[in-house]
Amino acid sequence: MAIAILSALAEEQQGLLERLRQPRRTERAGRSFWQGELHGQPVVLALSRIGKVAAATTVTTLIEAFGARQLVFTGVAGGIGPGVQVGDVVVATDFVQHDMDASPLFPRYQIPLYGRERFVCDVRLSAALLDATRAGLRELGLQATVHHGLIASGDRFVSAAAEAMQLHKVLSEAGHPPLAVEMEGAAVAQVCHDYGIPFAAMRTISDRADDTAHVDFPKFVNEVASRYALAILDDFMRDLGQSRV
Predict the structure, then answer these.
(1) Peptide bond preceding 82: is omega within 30 degrees of 0, i.e. cis?
(2) pLDDT, tens digit (0-9, with 9 covering 90-100), for 134-177
(3) Of 12, 94, 117, 234, which one is the catalytic site residue?
(4) 64 included as an active-site residue
(5) Is 216 a catalytic residue?
(6) Of the listed 182, 184, 207, 234, which one is catalytic?
(7) Residue 137's Cα: distance from chain center in Å?
(8) With the C-alpha atoms ordered 237, 127, 198, 183, is the resulting torsion angle positive or negative?
């Protein structure tokens, strides 16, 4: 039963690729998928690409073509919740699409024909990822805060302070106060819900989704997010392997 590790950026998977045993690459749907073993567990690595549709295509391919039966997502996000700072990590409890609005046919944020606004992450897998996040950061000698809560997704790169504040305000007033905002997670969560696949996700906070969101982003990814992802996922896979011994 393969576990899929999906990342938003290539830098976040480079370290995992280097540790992959018996790696083999497959090209499908215009994407590269790497199969192998990490800590004795069969895995398949892939990049989500950017945006909800691209991410949904990647996840569907992981499930249909590669037999993924669990999925973990790692990436970066803009922090918009109170106290969520650059360098922190958010492990998702659930996801909401902040740009979903099919009103008046359906209430705002509700996914048409699903009767819900949010898609929840798997409790057991998320707990394991939360533990691995804390352990991985300790191993790196970091004091970054680990948050656990709602993440909002949408097909828009939020990069203005006023927009970030307004987004948090309207979502909170609707009962969906988010800690972070990004562009793929809710789509991944919906596909995993459709297939009954356990899903967990973590996001490293690269900015406050404000006017500085574009500043030194490549540097942050290379020097911070990539280190976080490797340490956390290595711990996660090691613990997963030990729990099955």
Answers:
(1) no
(2) 999 999 998 899 999 999 999 998 888 888 899 999 999 999 99
(3) 12
(4) no
(5) no
(6) 207
(7) 17
(8) negative
